């Protein structure tokens, strides 16, 4: 089902909406809660949960719960991936029977015995890779990821990734820092999962990566430096309380100019590296996905638009799949239909012939989808304070934006 409804007119950061975006970076901190995430733990303390035992019966208040979720709720600060690893290793029993299925349902009265497994060695090596660090303290790291950088090692990208750079930046030896870097999970199943890798491989090579941006996407990404912070941030993603704002350049202008897309997303059966928005009732493995969008600026007389995106869910390639679904693929997104030929066809019909040569040159040099993670906000896992960051798009994005503005720009009109 496609649902598009009007949304509130929240504006993107003003530094970006100006005709000449500045290179400033914003950070605001204000207290929203005095609650400590774990009163028995020092904020900067790193905990290795290996060998921790849980022997407890499920109470009547828990109702019917997944085994991994229930155990995670009983061991403060542990990541769900760590619990899942323990279950798959045969270290969990329910009513005396070993259970190796993480989605097994437990009910009131079930007796659960669990031993947390040892951490697995990392399969990533530290590399001296320059990182654009926006913010860092003992618990978290916020990075402005450049386009074309892969977040985590995977087949074909074993080196040169953000994970390799973080290992070096934090001076963390591969083995002795397992308690900091392993056990990463994909609670959010983020919209930009480069490579669509398997969870079993990903868990061993994504140090503290709470969410991901695909290779072509630039912008802000938060990394947890200890297991408590990872679990706390993962829970925020699961509850959708993390504030993320993306901006994109699209092929064409959406109609209406602001709305909500509520269409499940699943793997494209005709292309294994692509996801698809699937509205049909019989949609197989497609999962609920909802995105809110708003046109910030109409460009090149309607040939393109600067669009802001806010996610209610975090599915693989969510923005790209939803943009394609409503007929406005992202500029430069060859996988999802925003090809150079399509963009040129739209733009040439709306612009002066004198612009066409330069337009063709600019688009031919565009080597990634025009998508940028502009703003990020979350509750600090140890201080309880709300922290917010914003970082403008890189030059490849802003340069083509400037050219499109020169071909015509107007602000959209919204019905109140």
TrEMBL record:
Enzyme active site: 214
GO molecular function: pseudouridine synthase activity; RNA binding
Protein name: Pseudouridine synthase
Region of interest: Disordered: 181-200
Pfam hit, one: S4
EC identifiers of the protein: 5.4.99.-
Keyword RNA-binding among record annotations: yes
Organism the protein comes from: Populus euphratica (Euphrates poplar)
Task of the protein: Responsible for synthesis of pseudouridine from uracil.
GO biological process, one term: enzyme-directed rRNA pseudouridine synthesis
Gene3D superfamilies: Pseudouridine synthase, RNA-binding S4 domain
InterPro entries per record: PsdUridine_synth_cat_dom_sf, PsdUridine_synth_RluA-like_CS, PsdUridine_synth_RluC/D, PsdUridine_synth_RsuA/RluA, RluA_PseudoU_synthase, S4_RNA-bd, S4_RNA-bd_sf
Keyword Oxidoreductase assigned: no
Keywords: Chloroplast, Isomerase, Plastid, RNA-binding, Transit peptide
Cellular component aspect of the GO annotation: chloroplast
Domain RNA-binding S4: 65-130
Family the UniProt entry places it in: Belongs to the pseudouridine synthase RluA family.
Organism superkingdom: Eukaryota
Subcellular location(s) per record: Plastid, Chloroplast
Composition bias type Acidic residues, residue spans: 186-195
Catalytic activity field: a uridine in RNA = a pseudouridine in RNA
């Amino acid at each position: 089902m496609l649902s598009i409804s009007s949304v509130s007119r929240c504006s993107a950061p003003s530094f970006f909406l100006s005709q000449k975006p500045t290179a400033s970076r914003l950070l605001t901190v204000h207290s929203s809660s005095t609650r400590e995430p774990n009163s028995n733990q020092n904020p900067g303390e790193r905990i290795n949960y290996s060998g921790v035992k849980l022997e407890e019966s499920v109470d009547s208040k828990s109702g019917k719960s997944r085994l991994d979720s229930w155990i995670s709720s009983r061991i403060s600060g542990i990541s769900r991936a760590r619990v899942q690893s323990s279950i798959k290793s045969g270290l969990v029993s329910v009513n005396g029977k070993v259970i190796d299925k993480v989605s097994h349902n437990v009910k009131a009265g079930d007796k659960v015995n669990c031993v947390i497994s040892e951490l697995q060695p990392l399969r990533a090596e530290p590399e001296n890779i320059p990182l654009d660090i926006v913010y860092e303290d003992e618990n978290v790291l916020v990075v402005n990821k450049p386009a074309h950088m892969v977040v985590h090692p995977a087949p074909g990208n074993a080196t040169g990734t953000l994970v390799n750079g973080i290992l070096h930046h934090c001076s963390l030896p591969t083995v002795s820092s397992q308690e900091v870097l392993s056990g990463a999970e994909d609670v959010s199943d983020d919209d930009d999962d480069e490579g669509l890798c398997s969870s079993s491989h990903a868990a061993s090579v994504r140090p503290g990566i709470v969410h991901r941006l695909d290779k072509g996407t630039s912008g802000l990404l938060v990394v947890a430096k200890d297991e408590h912070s990872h679990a706390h941030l993962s829970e925020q993603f699961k509850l959708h309380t993390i504030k993320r704002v993306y901006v994109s350049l699209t092929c064409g202008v959406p109609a209406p100019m602001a709305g909500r897309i509520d269409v499940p997303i699943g793997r494209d059966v005709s292309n294994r590296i692509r996801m698809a928005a699937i509205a049909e009732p019989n949609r197989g493995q497609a999962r609920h996905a909802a995105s809110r969008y708003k046109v910030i600026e109409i460009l090149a007389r309607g040939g393109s638009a600067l669009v802001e995106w806010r996610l209610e869910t975090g599915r693989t390639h969510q923005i790209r799949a939803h943009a394609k679904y409503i007929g406005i693929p992202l500029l430069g997104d060859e996988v999802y239909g925003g090809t150079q030929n399509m963009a040129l066809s739209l733009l040439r019909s709306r612009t002066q012939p004198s612009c066409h040569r330069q337009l063709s040159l600019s688009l031919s040099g565009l080597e990634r989808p025009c998508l940028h993670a502009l703003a990020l906000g979350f509750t600090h896992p140890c201080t309880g304070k709300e922290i917010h960051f914003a970082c403008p798009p890189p030059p490849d994005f802003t340069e083509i934006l400037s050219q499109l503005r020169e071909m015509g720009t107007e602000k959209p009109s919204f019905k109140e």
